[in-house]
Amino acid sequence: MKVSYQWLREYVDLADLSPEALADKLTSAGLAVDAVEPRNKGVSGVVVGEIVAARQHPNADRLRVCMVNVGTGEPLQIVCGAPNANPGLRVPVALPGATLPGGVQIRRTTLRGVESNGMLCSAAEIGLETRLLPSAQATGLFVLPEETPIGEDIVKVLCLDDVVLDIDLTPNRSDCFSIRGLVHEVAAILRSRHSFPEHIEAPKGAGESPIAIDLATERCPRYEAQVLDGINQTSSPLWMQMRLIAMGIRTIDLVVDVTNYVMLEWGQPLHAFDADSIAQSQIVVRQAHDGEELVTLDGQKRTLTRDMIVISDPEKAIGLAGVMGGENSEITASTRRIALESARFDGSSVRRTGQRLGLRSEAQQRFEKGVDPAAISPALARATALLVELGGARPIGPSVAVHQERKAGDSWQIPFVPEQCREALGFAISNDEMEAIFHALGFGVHRQEDKWLVEVPSRRADVTLTADLYEEIARLHGYDNIPSTVTVLPVTPGMRDRRQAMLAKARVLLVNMGLFEVRTYALTSPDALAPLSSPYRPIPLLLPMSDERRVLRTHLLPSLAEVAVHNLAHQVPGGAVFEIGKSYLTSELPLRSQPQEREVIAMLWFGETEGTLYEKARRYDFYDAKGVLENLLAALGADASYVRSAIPWLHPGRSADIVAGEETIGVVGELHPETAKAFGIDRAIYAEIDVASLLATRESDMQAKALPRFPGSRRDIAIVVDRETLVGDLLRTVRERLATSGLLQGLRAFDVYVGEGVPEGRKSVAITMFFQHAEHTLTDDEIEQLVATAIDALRVNHNAQLRS
């Protein structure tokens, strides 16, 4: 936000406070001033002159010899090359000895045989920003109004003795996007009074207003309009143009300049329509129709959507609320009646409209951050008064106001306890000083013994909590005035909870087993989730970054598959990756409550293993994944088994649900060929473990026990079973059958074989069993009896036969 130092001085007594000192005070109070920029870029010795005569240069076609009155007696002869150097014009004249921006020195000289005693200046030559000037003023001599006093210093005439403060405002301080708000702020910081008028009486016209207003959307709480007739379409006065330029606003014509000037002064955006273009003299504020089109003031045809607010008449849209007007209601040189708008639009709707249409403006910025309802009427009155004064306009009837909210400008009260404020801020400050700070800010104070009620005006929408009042006290007291003290706090060492400790351990285990951890986007596309046929519905974003990132994922598999595809495309032969992340689940849209967040440990093996000198590269298979899971779950204290899975996107014969106790905590399996093809990979094995389920089923307390005193014994068997028999079922049978003995300390399958020597439709499964007794060394007879018991159980339950 750029702000004119002189404009502030009109309303606040800055005494001898320099712009730099004011910048320091604003920065200390939380309004960071990024730059202090003098408007004068090095101009001196330049005055206002009038061209009294002009003739062609005798020796140059493109030069003219001008006689210029600068108020010192005899006119000066000055040679000029500007095409608009015509008699009667008042222009800036750089006298001999003058200095221009860039250190240019002006002296008497002779040009093509004719003496020249100075220089007639363009806007650029005296340091004005030509991009902010009307096109007619941007080139050629800078023409001044005819009433400009001859001989007057151009620095004074163009307000170049002003200084601009560039303030980096935080989003919550919408009140300071105006002179009005900054006047209140500066007066509070300096503890001085200000003279900014909070109430303005607008000139009233005779009769009734010819305009009617219909608010057909809840996104416009208040709308006011004033119709004016007989507007003189001229340029705005020089002082107004210079203020607008100082604040970085382009000058256009009187009506536009007045609306911009009042917006800067009051923080309330205004817009003017050609009143004669409004059908049936009725303004309708409504939501746009899907597919409705509007040509905006920049000449672009815009296709609108239902979530955009439009200003319309009964026949057509005439403007995008808070963003840009329509070309069909534009004010032109022939316009004589205008309808001046002052309103409050929903900031979120204005922001979305601007983003979708690629538009950005000063007015839009203010609506996004929030405008003060109490400024709507005074800003309209101020603009009306200026148009009457400067443009000869006549109001037709009074202004018309329609609203759907409580009284505009209503304040609110916040409870405040001074003692609690002192405790929160950590320094001593008297009640009287706190009350003085609130009064300086324009807040009302109702003291009730130890408890106060602080009344906050509507312009300070950022102050809604008691904590906000504490901040205002600290800010205005001065952060530099707060004493430095050493705070002694008890040192409490940080501790990981069970979930954090388990996931940290899981990360280390998985990395040690050769997997790489990845972090992927939680956002994906509906197409990426389609192969999983999930019962959950992807949650769409209102403003997605791209089509590829427009919904929240319901599963981590598409994210890991994207990693696999990326690596395979970059000539990586294969890999194993994992991610600990969340998916977002809901079965109904639109959302009526927060979606369920499901955290999982997801793993994916794709492509080939890395070959070594002793082992050739091979494709990852189901048992690679199962081995990792067995080690991981055992290390995390979860006793898990595996049962056949019915998940449709996994291979029906190479997948299993992971079960701990009575609860399914995860799944592992090779992707179904169709699923793998849909993700763009040839073959892959996926596994996931639900973190909450794992945490609930694992042993919470690890108990230490003495090392065994007696050696154990291992026995391996190979059995032949039907191919459909699950290895997990075999291990479960052995474990259950030998559970009563208490001697089975380890059990796992280490080989599955199908081929020569094994009957068709059967497979060979090799199982290793480890036995150990706590009180003596097991004899061969005891071990053989245990093995026989296991084989018998496998034969009875699974038609197993020992492989010979």
TrEMBL record:
A GO cellular component term found in this entry reads: phenylalanine-tRNA ligase complex
- The residue stretches assigned to a coiled coil in this entry are none
TRNA-binding domain location is 40-155
CDD domains, per this entry? PheRS_beta_core (cd00769), tRNA_bind_bactPheRS (cd02796)
Entry keyword annotation includes Ribosomal protein? no
Q: What is its EC number?
A: 6.1.1.20
Domain (FDX-ACB) spans 708-803
* Cofactor(s) listed in the protein's UniProt record: Mg(2+)
Family from the record: Belongs to the phenylalanyl-tRNA synthetase beta subunit family. Type 1 subfamily.
**Protein name, please?**
Phenylalanine--tRNA ligase beta subunit
